[in-house]
Amino acid sequence: MLNGMATIFRNYKQAVVSSRAFADFTPKASFEIKKCDVHRLEEGPPGQAELTREQGLHYYRTMQTIRRMELKADQLYKQKIIRGFCHLYDGQEACAMGIEAAINPTDHVITAYRAHGYTYTRGVPVKQILAELTGRKGGIAKGKGGSMHMYAPNFYGGNGIVGAQVPLGAGIALACKYLGNNQVCVTLYGDGAANQGQIFEAYNMAALWKLPCIFICENNKYGMGTSVERSSASTDYYRRGDYIPGLRVDGMDVLSVREATKFAADHCRAGKGPILMELETYRYHGHSMSDPGVSYRTREEIQEVRSKSDPISMLKDRMLSNKMAAMEEFKEMDSEIRKEIEEAALFATSDPEPPLDALCDHIFHNDLPLEVRGTTPWSKLKSSS
Amino acid sequence: MASLSCVLRSGRVTVRDALNQAMDEELERDERVFLLGEEVAQYDGAYKISRGLWKKYGDARIIDTPITEMGFTGIAVGAAMAGLRPICEFMTFNFSMQAIDQVINSAAKTNYMSAGRQSVPIVFRGPNGASAGVGAQHSQCFAAWYGHCPGLKVVSPWSAEDARGLLKAAIRDDNPVVFLENELMYGVPFEMSEESLSKDFTIPFGKAKVERQGTHVTLVTHSRYVSFCLDAAAVLAKEGVECEVVNLRSIRPLDVETIEASVMKTNHLVTVEGGWPQFGVGAEVCARVMEGMMGPHRPPH
Questions:
Q1: Closest residue by Cα to residue B173 from A38, A77, A364, A139
Q2: Which residue in A126, A305, A361, B245 has the fewest CB atoms around it within 10 Å?
């Protein structure tokens, strides 16, 4: 009798999943989010965030895709198919997703070298990201940029020199103001970069000229192997803008990041000038693939974050406990994502490298083809724009 | 600052006025062009190159910056990436050293690294090289440093015509251009042809100009030293030595063809520049001439 009942229930569950009747799921729920610490602000973002089922599924899919893509990159690197620099983003997915959820595609984003997550959220398919990592012609930069130099419309990379992207971001914001297009520029940097002089120079000009620039410090607690306590006299990165208002945000919660970024974007669009956000986040991998990541921090610390604060798990648990989706849906998404990543990896490992005659292309933009000196004065290469 | 009002009664234009006029015309022609740097607006420019522009174009397009080269150069490069066409002035190129990472790593290399997706249409300009008694820290010539880097175009005008034509070409170029002026040339007047005063007058990069024909020795030079070479040529002419003076105009790309043609004719070469000799512009000219003498059909043995 009980067996029979179980069968009925099992079939019922399957029937629910296959028909995906919306009436069976909570379409929208409100979640409490951690209150932000504020600097020079009367009030911060709201303490509650609304999440629709569609949004939740989208955020999950995006974050899980980034996670799996980064883990695939790890695997390909260990197989020596990806070489050179490779800085992985797993653990920090809520930052990239939360920011993208709060801005428009016409807004601008610039970040440092831990850029694969943003490259994806800004619209580059996994296939073209992995193929860029493996240095193939199907990569987003035709194999010539590599991990740190991927670009997309309104996404300015991928920048290798620590801190240099911050004045660039302020400049993009200047262009937004100059053109009067009501757009903002999200300018990201890490806790390691936060002490760079050029960042303070950028803060000064952004504030003076009221540039619509959202400065965001992704504080993952370590600049390479140097903890924040050992690098910074003040670890309150959200206050370091001094005269610029600031927020300290839980960077492991995609909803917190989204609400804070919305708040920040509204601030900029209202003509109030720049604003600074510190996202408290964590990276599971070491600084780069050449760093095991355990000489300057403990395995226990990494494990603790993974078990208690993983951004993807947190979102999934929230949705499940509020009946916003079924476990099977997440499993199905995971399976689709796994397939997508596998196909992308296959492309990335089978696509040919760029041909030798493309070596010198794009030295200049919009120029006539020119001759480029080869290894000897009489062996010349050609550069097309 | 109307187009012909700076022409002196004698019909001549100073390098300063040629630069001023060129910027004025390009600012008028294209709304995306703007000027930023220290003292460029309300001070009319440390060397008065931007005189009158702030009055005419206002705060939005002529921007005084704080004394923070790395920051404002990065801002200029970012603005170029986002679709504007900035002219970034360095009060002297000595100060560009503080911002050199933005010039090389953010500006010069980006089009290549992005496989052509991200262009950086920017001009970096200002006085370069020696002045009059300003001390070692304010006298360095950066032609060789910037001339070393792919992704940059580097030009070094001498005359008012050079200044006007090369600056207009630089502003209209979609690539990062390093425009090396010379403080001591700013006040020097030059004749300007009707053609060179026209609004669309540009000088192509990579073409040197033979300022004086000669048969006995080739003097390859750029910037203020063209004047020195012409003066020297006048002295030597009295002794029956005819110098050919080649004004490079363009450091990168270098016009090796014109240099080679001249050296083939005279068989004697002297390079004259304001930079230090080791790894300098002259060293590169000599290397290229030597390599050219080898020829593709005669590899060295």
A1: A364
A2: A305
For the whole model, what pTM was predicted?
A: 0.94
- Mean pLDDT by groups of 10 residues along chain A of 385 residues: 47 45 83 98 97 98 98 98 97 98 98 98 98 98 98 97 98 98 98 98 98 98 97 98 98 98 98 98 97 96 97 98 97 98 98 96 96 86 95
Residues in chain B within 8 Å Cβ distance of A179:
83-84
Q: Which two tokens stand for residue A363?
A: 């030295």
Separation in Å, CA of B141 to nearest CA in chain A:
24
Nearest-CA distance A265 → chain B (Å): 18
Strand ranges in chain A using DSSP code E only, listed in sequence order: 28-32, 37-39, 48-52, 108-110, 185-190, 213-219, 222-223, 226-227, 246-250, 275-280, 370-373, 380-383
Determine, for residues A166 and B74 on separate chains, whether the beta-carbon distance falls below 8 Å: yes
Residues 6+ apart with CB under 8 A from B265: B215, B218, B244
Condensed to tens digits (0 to 9), the pLDDT of residues B42-58 reads 999 999 999 999 999 99
Backbone angles phi, psi at B154, to 5 degrees: -130, 120
As a 3-state breakdown, chain A gives helix, strand, coil percent values, each rounded to 5, of 45, 15, 40
Whether residue B138 lies in the annotated active site: yes
* Whether B84 contacts chain A with CB within 8 A: yes
Instruction: Give dist(CA B91, CA B93) in Å, integer.
Output: 7
Contacts of A107 in chain B (CB under 8 A): none
Which residue on chain B is closest to A379 by alpha carbon? B296
CB A94 within 8 A of CB A252: yes
Q: Write out the two tokens for B66.
A: 């704080």
Interface list for B 18-37 with A (CB within 8 A): 34
Nearest CB to B112; choose among A171, A198, A362: A362
Note whether A223 and A190 are within 8 A (CB). Answer: yes
